Amino acid sequence: MPKAQLVRKVTLPLLTFYGLGTILGAGIYVLIGEVTLRAGTLAPFAFGLSAIIASITAYSFARLSSMFPRSAGEAAYTLEAFQSKKLSAFVGLSVVLIGTVSAATMVRGFTGYLTSIASTPELSVILGAIIFITVLSIWGIRQSLLVAALITVIEIGGLLFVMLVAFEPEQLSSFSFDFPESPVGSIPIVFFAAFVSFYAYIGFEDIVSIAEETIDPTRVLPLAILFSLIISTMLYVVLSIVCTVFVPASIFESSEAPFAAIVEFHGFNPVIMVAISVIAIINGALIQQIKAARVLYGMASQKFFFSVFATIHPKTHTPVIATLFVGALILILAILLDLITLAIITSAITLVIFMVVQASLLKVSIKSKPLTSPDILVPVSGIVLNSTLLYFGLFNT
């Protein structure tokens, strides 16, 4: 009997919704309040800065994914560039850690929303959420992504609803940005808030982990990265402006379910918004689990990690053992760590891995003939910006 393998079923629309779903579910439903509290009226600038840095990083992912369309993603790019299995394994495990910590962050956010309307034990909510996403991840990639695409449409509808509810034109005339007396004083504020909000952009890089299940990956992967990042950036910047201008900061100080609190503050029943939010967040956690399991599979199939994780179920064509392992890690992290700690850990590790990916593109570009200017200048600027954001995030809190 031939060994079961991954199958190519994923199209450009499905892959775009996959990336968009994890970007939106990963951050904005959970962290909009945290970023607004830290940056105040400068929050839109923080989201804008994060978008610029994410876009530069996305270029490196788009280029490398078109050259090396493999499920191991960042680990595969590192191996191609530096020919080091140890470095590649380190990068791959870091990516798995990012996926599991990020999923745990979303499970915590899911718990905050659900317990805001129902007196359910926190542990029961966490356990139930993780069992649900693990079963769905094992079910099949096409089924998982169809569910994710449907939920992503609901997520976008929820964000548009919050914008519509919060928008009060009469407040625009009295609004002003609260800049410090010295313009230099704005820099650490905006950069630290950008560091936190950068978590909200994590997800576009997850697209590359579906490379071996994507139809025409060298064309589809870069386009899906581009489309998902453009749509999410537009939504984030507009939403951060709305939350800064029309929502009192006290709303975010007193609630772990920010969008539900905004809707309730403006006189609407928060239950519908809670329902949309928990669906959006659980969608993000699902996609992060899929990504982490695929990276483990990709590393194992390329023989620089435990071969057991390369096992594919003959009926579902999914990496079952890798998926179960990731689910167990998510459970442990979700129980042990709080929301903001999980988000900061995710952002810090992600920025380091992004710098490695950009260095990989730089190394591959230098070895290739002829050299192209964007493949040199873009990763260099990305490394500088990522390291700057990491510095302000970790040492100027």
Kindly describe this structure:
Helix content is 73%, strand content 0%. It is mainly alpha-helical. Helix 5 (122-139) runs antiparallel to helix 12 (320-336).
Percent of sequence in beta strands: under 5%
Major beta-sheet overview: none
Taken in chain order, the helices and strands follow as HHHHHHHHHHHHHH
Question: How far apart lie the N and C ends?
Answer: 57 Å
Q: Given the helix and strand composition, which structural class is it? A: mainly alpha
Helicity range: over 70%
For the secondary structure, the number of strands is 0
- Gross morphology: globular
Low-pLDDT residue spans: none
Q: State Rg.
A: 20 Å
Mean pLDDT: 81
Tally of alpha and pi helices: 14
Write the SSE topology.
Layout: H1 12-39, H2 43-67, H3 74-82, H4 85-115, H5 122-139, H6 141-166, H7 186-197, H8 217-246, H9 249-253, H10 258-265, H11 271-301, H12 320-336, H13 339-367, H14 374-395
Report a brief summary of the structure.
The protein is mostly helical and 397 residues long.
What keyword list fits this structure?
single chain, 397 residues, mainly alpha, 14 helices, globular
